[in-house]
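request received
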Amino acid sequence: MTSGSAGPGSLAPAGPGRGRRRTTASVPDLVARAREGDARAVARLISLVEDESPLLREVMAGLAPHAGHAQVVGITGSPGVGKSTSTNALVGELRRAGKRVGVLAVDPSSPFSGGALLGDRVRMQDHATDRDVYIRSMASRGHLGGLAWTTPQALRVLDAAGCDVILVETVGVGQSEVEIAGLADTTLVLLAPGMGDGIQAAKAGILEIGDLYVVNKADRDGADQVKRDLRSMLALATRAEGAWKPPIVSTVAAKGEGLDGVVAEIERHHAWLASSGELERRRTRRARDEIEAIAVTALRERWGDVHGRSELDELAAAVVAGESDPYAAADVLLASIQTS
Amino acid sequence: MTSGSAGPGSLAPAGPGRGRRRTTASVPDLVARAREGDARAVARLISLVEDESPLLREVMAGLAPHAGHAQVVGITGSPGVGKSTSTNALVGELRRAGKRVGVLAVDPSSPFSGGALLGDRVRMQDHATDRDVYIRSMASRGHLGGLAWTTPQALRVLDAAGCDVILVETVGVGQSEVEIAGLADTTLVLLAPGMGDGIQAAKAGILEIGDLYVVNKADRDGADQVKRDLRSMLALATRAEGAWKPPIVSTVAAKGEGLDGVVAEIERHHAWLASSGELERRRTRRARDEIEAIAVTALRERWGDVHGRSELDELAAAVVAGESDPYAAADVLLASIQTS
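response:
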């Protein structure tokens, strides 16, 4: 599968640009190097994904046979609950357990993406020289801080590169916390005492998405109250027989306390997912969503992207003028795909 | 266009159900009665929209020639800023100006939808007997309290029924505030002093969507500060030459103060929209979005709705198994539409 640095399908443009380092590898070569753990090849592949490179399709086709191994763990929580500290500590704990770890930070306030205090950023350097840890921040392109739509594709890169666990960190506001649950095998919701909005935020939807709740800063006043509140709210949920009951774990991430418990629950959840058939179901649903999103995006481009005024514009103008209605217009649009 | 109560296209099922009052009018008859201001016909049409009735297409086709007159005003703001009180006072002010007014409440906490204090609900009865005011709450079906996707269709009913102004009230959290700006000709953002999150919320996106800012409870401490903050934040926005500069208006809605200023600014904005060509642009964009949403929904149903396992499920399983990738799968899906 690997090929030389300037073979067919090479990233090198013909001519002057050719000598530049980052444009000399072919996609199959990059995939092969990424699978061997070459961090630069991983970085390059994720950049191709992020930039929506014309090579994206080739990248995805090259990765497909090698993906499906990694456990994707989404980490969400309000700002201030210690999300970055927890992610960092969790990386350390997973490394002690011998796992290869990927981190995708899709949180604009994350130290990985440069939004936080220097202190935090320095702390994350713990793992900067560990070649079995790959850390990457993603630009959050969706509106309102949602997950970049390229996130699932970046996950596939890290998966094919041999990560055992991929942590996806995002800020717990609005859309993104629901989106992360759609992407992850296991969703970890972080709470902390002293956050006025801890349980309030929980009410807004977090209680439906967590597979695992972590009460961080458990040495502070109010931690027991947060756990009690959480426990009684979770008890209200109706669950089918045999369904997963989300556990609550306490940590003091800044002191590295309790992370072993988190890793144990992540592993227990993964085992339950696999044995219950839920892992297959979640991954199939995720693939469905991804395929559908790509197909719909392609159609939208086709509908909107004709020289000058597009067919969709014409139809919209007819609706505004009262000459048509949206359903009749949608029929015309759909008929046009079938004959195009 | 009107037909008898049991003609072709009648809502009455053959047989026993036939005598029931709400099933005896044909769609053309309902449309004709709605245009004459019959509130029950309006209610019935909106119910057909909300229930996604099989007659929906006929309803939309029947309304199309009569829509396009109403000015749609979206009203958004955090809970506690006095949104319901303001909407109520605004209805009164618009009535005094001789306008026919529709109110669509898509806010789960709205008194219209039954989520608020009885006191509020009673207060809204001000307009309950006014036949030139039509008030309707919509179930918020989108996830996370977003606007129901049926909202644009309900707007079309009220529009065809002859409303001059339609107020769409929604709670200002996350998605819905952006969605409302997509639906409305004029977006009114409400703020109030003493709400810790007033300007904070504004930062999160409200500053990009408001055509008009209303600082309610202007007789309270802090109102001047809210206005100052708002003014300086709005001043930072870069606007094209000739673009609309969102004004800031003060009100004390509970005492009916300042609403005349709000109505004046709504009218001034409408005049600007019409003269600048922006009204046409916004309405065309809205129709585009609506047509596209209907077409995409139809495709999704087709992809997912085959007996047993759908084509999309098969493709997703192949992606999970590493036999295909999402792009290749999307190609197959798109090819299947063209030949179906």
